[in-house]
Amino acid sequence: MPKTLFWRLASLLMIALAVAVLAMILLFRQDRATLIARNFTEAKMAQIEALRATLAKVAVDESTGRPAQPLQRLGREYGVMLIPTDRRPEIGQVPRGPALAPLVEKLQEQLGHDTEIRLGMRLDQPVVWIRLKLGEQGARAVWAGIPIRNVEAGEVPMRLLVTLGGVLIVLLAATLWFARRLSRPLADLADAVDKVAVGKRPDPLPEDGPTEIARVARNVNRMAANLERLERDRSTMLAGISHDIRTPLTRLRLAGEMAVSDPQSRSEMAADIDEIDRIVTQFLDFARGNPKESPIRIDLRESLSAVARKAESRSLPVQWAAGEDAICVNTFPAAFERMLMNLIENAHRYGKPPVELVLIRDGVVAEIDVLDAGEGVAAADVERLKQPFVRGDQARGGSMGAGLGLALVERLAQWHGGSFDLLPRAGAGTIARLRLPLA
């Protein structure tokens, strides 16, 4: 079998075309033989026998060797073509094939086993030529051509229709099977690329099949292995960074508490250290790949209540009222909490209180809104603010930060199979909206 996809497809088309042409040739020959055989009924055989008897009685001029009676008129009477053999010693071809054998045997049994029979074409019409003796002595002979009428539209043999249908079904089945064999590696390749696109490790692809697909499969396997190695290296590096940065921050916090006597300066230093720790946490969260925890099914009323209490403990008050109906989603618990805390922190940092938390069911998704009463975000800035390391203008971005909060929220929302958006709030303020599929 050819190695390349091009030649496999070309081979499929050539084989299908060859089978179709061969089948049509065989069916044409078989149908023509059947058509000829059907024309030779008992009445036709009796007509041929009468013609032979008439030709045997025709007087032949000894001097010229020509019949006394014109052959054309005799041919019109019997509906045949009569050609003397001295003008055409050979005509047509000897009938071949098993389909015509019964007809030849039938004619030779009726007219004599030494009777010569030929098959030819005249003006796109099949003609059976029979050599018959002329005159009583039989010294001369003529070719009697019996034209075969064309088949009518309603006389197409059922065998022909069934055979054509069978050939088409076989060709269609073979084509579908072959196309499936060619498309399966492409489908596996597409599934593997989809997994890589969302950060998952695909199963190794088989590296056989057409040359082009095998080469792509090898490269995808190599790429997936490299990504997995990079993920391991990144996890190791992030663990080291977390330890190496937070340890000095802890020492700075302790030194500030012990060495700085001014309460205001000590408070400002502690706030700066907490801000640095928050930025480092955002960097680490954003740099991590897929969550390491397993997703679980949660009731959003309970989870949002816990988030509201945690925000309250960090001096980030949130107005929240749980509804009566349970709304459940599948979440990564730590990532989900981080996502909501980021939005609440942003609402307090860049907006104005009161900050509200609202949960509703919208069809097959749960909609979580974090609302503030600040100056709002321009629609033209929404997509820009969701990019990594992008901060708002002075009105909303004067505070210290790395510009990763909203980018991290959007990534976490995508981990959950949902979406994140910023919308203007009626009156004043911003709506940070999360949409997560229901469990």
Q: How would you sum up this structure, described in words?
A:
- It is a single chain.
- This protein has helices spanning 5-39, 42-57, 71-78, 101-111, 158-197, 211-259, 263-287, 300-313, 333-350, 382-385, 394-397, 405-415; strands spanning 81-84, 117-122, 125-134, 140-147, 296-299, 319-320, 328-331, 356-362, 365-371, 419-424, 430-437.
- Strand 8 and strand 9 form a beta hairpin.
- With 439 residues, the protein is an alpha+beta fold.
- The protein is rod-shaped and about 155 Å long.
- The model is unreliable at 151-156 and 394-399 (pLDDT under 50).
- The strands form three sheets. A five-stranded mixed beta sheet has the order 6-8-9-11-10. Strands 1-4-3-2 form a four-stranded antiparallel beta sheet. It has a two-stranded antiparallel sheet with strand order 5-7.
- Helix 1 (5-39) runs antiparallel to helix 5, helix 5 packs parallel to helix 6 and helix 8 (300-313) packs across helix 9 (333-350).
- The protein has twelve helices and eleven strands.
- The chain starts with a helix and ends with a strand.
CA-based shape: rod-shaped
Instruction: Provide the succession of SSEs.
Output: HHHEHEEEHHHEHEEHEEHHHEE
| Biggest beta sheet attributes | 5 strands, mixed
Trace the largest sheet across and list its strands: 6-8-9-11-10
Tally of strands? 11
Strand content: 15-25%
Instruction: List segments where confidence is low: pLDDT < 50 over at least 5 consecutive residues.
Output: 151-156, 394-399
Distance linking N and C termini: 49 Å
Helix count from the secondary structure assignment: 12
**Percent helix range:** 40-55%
Radius of gyration: 47 Å
Mean pLDDT: 79
| Class by alpha and beta content | alpha+beta
